[in-house]
Amino acid sequence: MLTDNKITLRALEPKDIDFLYKWENDPYVWKVSNTLTPYSRYVLEQYVMNSHLDIYTTKQLRLIIELDLSSGSPEPGKPIGCVDLFDFDPQHKRAGVGILIADKTERGNGH
Q: Nearest Cα to 55, choosing from 11, 23, 14?
């Protein structure tokens, strides 16, 4: 877990399925993620259940962005988005990076 005084980045957990389902099936998000079809809840459950696998195996890593418990936020611990590393290539030491602030009320707040 990585944290500062505003947000925490943490690993995926089974409790994340509901908001991942909402985020991954939002057409607004599709515009920036190259997604063309909806994700089923089953596919997302399998993704979360396999998220413990090493980045060297899956070539990707997703961390949940949530409001830090010590931030003074009215909703500490609330998930607001995610950070993705994708197309990880250890030989050439590179990866794609995606950052999504899915909670529209949290966009533009300096996260």
A: 11
Q: How far apart are CA 66 and CA 87, in angstroms?
A: 24
Q: Name the helix (H) or strand (E) containing 42.
A: helix 41-49
pLDDT digits (tens, 9 = 90+) for 22-76: 999 998 888 888 788 899 999 999 999 999 999 999 999 999 999 987 766 677 7
- The CA distance from 96 to 85, in Å, is 6
Residue 38 DSSP label:
P
Give 105's contacts (C-beta < 8 A, 6+ positions apart): none
Q: Could you give the CA distance from residue 24 to residue 33 in angstroms, rounded to a whole number? A: 9
What global pTM score does this model have?
A: 0.87
Give Cα 28 distance to the centre of its chain: 16
